[in-house]
Each structure stands twice: as structure tokens, then as C-alpha cells.
Design brief:
30% strand, alpha+beta, elongated
Length: 94
């Protein structure tokens, strides 16, 4: 007897729900942190801005932000990644 085909929705290394950090880098400018936390909140209504971690670049031109969201599905994370990646203030999303 052969095993049923794997369900691609279950083929993941992430257990849902779980805390999931996303790192975002952009130019250091007014409104950057607020814009990123609002995007996180749109995709995770329970997002806690108190968990945000900030790191300046060596010369202070760039700002790295770690947003820890509660991941509930692959679709949610994909949508958040697309929203962050397409934002005009963002240079890199990891």
C-alpha cells in the first residue's frame, strides 16, 4: 500500500502559530519604523510594537528593524513579505 501524496500546505519547517522574526532594512528616515510596524499589524492584528528591535548601520545611514509577528500560515507570511518588499522605504527583507 502506498502512502497518500504529501499535502504541500503541511510540508513546512514552521509550526503554526509561532513567533516569527522578519528583518527589514531601509534608509534611516522619519516614519520608517512606524510604516513597518503598521504593515506588520495589518498582517498580524495582535502584533506588539514593543517587540520591535532596531539596529543602526555603522555610519547611521540605514536602519535595521526586526519585526516579530505571530505566524499563522504560510500565506500570511508570504503576503507580509510581499508587502514589506514592495514598500518604497524598504531596501532588503530577510
Amino acid at each position: 500500500m502506498t502512502a497518500p501524496p504529501a499535502d504541500p500546505r503541511r510540508d513546512t519547517l514552521i509550526d503554526y502559530p509561532s513567533a516569527f522574526p522578519i528583518k527589514v532594512m531601509g534608509l534611516r528616515q522619519d516614519g520608517f519604523v512606524h510604516a513597518m510596524t503598521e504593515l506588520a499589524r495589518q498582517h498580524d492584528p495582535g502584533f506588539d510594537a514593543a517587540t520591535v528591535e532596531l539596529r543602526e548601520s555603522a555610519k547611521g545611514n540605514y536602519l535595521g528593524i526586526t519585526l516579530t509577528v505571530t505566524a499563522t500560515s504560510r500565506e500570511q507570511l508570504d503576503n507580509l513579505y510581499r508587502a514589506l518588499s514592495s514598500h518604497p522605504m524598504v531596501k532588503v527583507v530577510i
